[in-house]
Amino acid sequence: MFDSQEFGLLWERNEYIEVKYRSCIMEEAIAMSRANPSGSFYYDSQSYYDEMFTHDFSVRPHYNSVYSLFAHMPASKLAARQQALHQRMIEEGITFTLYSPNQQEPLERTIPFDYIPRVIPKVEWDLIDRGVRQRIQALNAFVHDIYHGQRMVRDGLIPRKMILSNMYFRPEMVGLEIPANVYITASGIDLIRDENGQYYVLEDNLRTPSGFSYLFKGRTLMSELFHDIYLSSSVQSIERSINCFLSSLRALAPNGKKDPLIVLLTPGSYNAAYYEHTFLAQQMGIHLVEGRDLVYQDHKIYVRDLRGLRQVDVIYRRIDDPYLDPLAFHPDSLLGVPGLMNAYRAGNVAIANAPGTGVADDKAVYAYVPDMIRYYLGEEPVLHNVPTYILARKDEREYALAHLNELVVKETSLSGGYGMLIGPSATSEEIRAFSTAIQRDPSRYIAQTTMKLSRAPVMINGVMSPRHIDLRVFALMGAETHVIPGGLTRVAMKEGSLVVNSSQGGGVKDTWVLNDE
Amino acid sequence: MLNRNAEALFWMGRYMERAENHARLIDVHYHLQAEHELGLERSPDHLERIDSSTKWMRIVEALGSRSNYEEQYGAFTEIDVLLYMTLDWGNENSIVSCVSHARGNLRTLREKVPSELWDSLNGFYLWLRECQPDDLLRESPHTFFGRIKDWAALFLGLCQSVMPRENEWHFIECGRYLERAENTLRILKSTISAACSEGWSHAASYPYLQAVLKSVSGHQAFRRYYADGIAIEAIFEFVILNAVFPRSVQFSLHSLDEHLRLIELQDKTLRTQHDRMIRQVGKVKADLACLEQDDFMLLDSNAVLVNHLFDATQQLGVAFAKTFFRLGEASA
Q1: A86: which chain B residues are within 8 Å (Cβ-Cβ)?
Q2: pLDDT by residue (tens digit) across A162-197?
Q3: A208, A305, A411, B312: least CB-packed within 10 angstroms?
Q4: pTM passes above 0.90
């Protein structure tokens, strides 16, 4: 019922990886039996890019100190620290909630946290940082354009249908000038690496991306419990990032108000990501509110507190567009604030992220992001998309139709793994059916190259074993744009699995960007 | 109550507060990254001066025992500093010494205070006495200092819940708050000296300033008042003047004043002295109340201010001793 991005478990949207790579799992199982048994790691020589090891099992230079410290740490010490880590996560309530229909009391789970950090050398990070900034800037310009004149559509660079039929397009936003012209205050860009270690953007999360708290908490836990390893590496600090987050929100205050009242609007304590909401509110010193704490009066939004009504200037919302305002969107939603959109349109309150940003993180629109970068910024993209074929274009369609057995085809209006064709594992009937469907209505589909997700070692019972990972990079846009150094590495904890979802045993790693080469 | 008892209560309060403060300070600063994280301008002579030992030197300096350390150990290394600050019996101000002093004082008062106090403080002492240098590093310093904070909190909580609100209680609290004010000021002093000697740029000092706030558990409260503006001046203003943040100088002095006034005395000469003492605290409070925004604007003027307040708290300590503890055996 709710949008999975916010209301499901934290990362509900990566079914993509799961399905796309299913075909590789068999190969991997075979390769596993030839695993290299030497040393303290268990590795096969698969054709995946590994973050720590090169193809001949030597340690990549930027992993040297981390590897040698872990390799030399006695098993008993590791076990004790693992235990302390788990204990801390329980005590501090760093959990997400799993609801299942046949259970009275919902399960509170700690997210699997692997303590071997992912290390990114400075030169790689500089590229990511530049690429993410560029991408966010172009996407923000795109959202603005879509709600003001649609230049890119009129210039014929993106089909009008793709915008108007987009379920995230909000007619209420058309022509509206918003504070500081920032639509995408907080974003999470998911990156993956192919077998050559090249980074690709897998998807953009521009609505209410989550994962910040795991990033910050993960760093705290690592620096406190693995202090020796942490202090022996020169890691770029993320201390500043919470401050930058707050600055971005303050920059939105209508009329440049000096000391704005900022609230974080949460759906409430039953939400799976509630821990994150409390964490962010506490760290930024802003108020954590639910819809019922806010009132609309005279085109303004107020928070009820013991001092009476106080006017709210900025709302960082962690509920999705359709639930923001029952008067404007879902009439039966209890989560939002009736009248909020009126106050917003009157310019008396800012909402971050702005309603309607989802128009730019749709699957089909994703394919046009490189064009946006060229169109709005006049630059070539620094980070590439996973090679995507827009089937509405004749030559790309012809190529795709001829290579369906190698590609992944997705129906743009559907998500959650529905309406997909996984070429390498599909039967010839399935391929034929898709081929017909594509020819009937090509703009409903996109096709992508099958990617081989990179891997990083995780510690399992004292043994380093390879697991597939991706990287969510967070950007915060305000008066200036800040990219949090490192981001959150998500790990498919199950052997051979490609699912990084926390609901399905996905875990996280602290991500270290080194200061020096 | 005997003077001697009053003195013991006062010092027990001070030592327990000191132990807790030291644990906080070391814990936070331990986890600071090495110096180049500060992004300092690297002129060649800076590079020589700023190496990893600077971090350790600062911790020792913040606790005000640099010369004593240098006599014993010479160079500032991680393991030496940690040992010196926590488990070194030779250091009057190491955590183990503080707890031992607090226990020694409590021992002379056992029959006068609820027995839970002794049980908890003695438990703390026995645990700490058995700790070996290895324990400190085996799990992680953070876990170790966390335990020290837990013990201190347990003791404080017991005092809160079982102590009758009589003179005994007020003496403990006077000691605690005077110590707290002094400790906070000492941290600020070392911040100023670090900032001046190393020529911090505005952005570069961020991690260290953040650590200063964390060591007084003020980083979350600070954001509520000053939002995203972390600047050295704002931090000084907050840590010195905030009226509701319980580790600020202002709050500590007000609490000290409150408890000092509640001490009930029979003896007439003592009452005169007591009144003078109250006026002395009043003067420091007045200094704080009359500060202007400008007083926080410059590092130099902050140094003047902090030094002035620091001296004032030290004089209060002396005045306490003169007023209550050195009058022979007259009863308070």
Answers
A1: none
A2: 888 888 899 999 999 998 899 999 999 999 998 889
A3: A305
A4: no
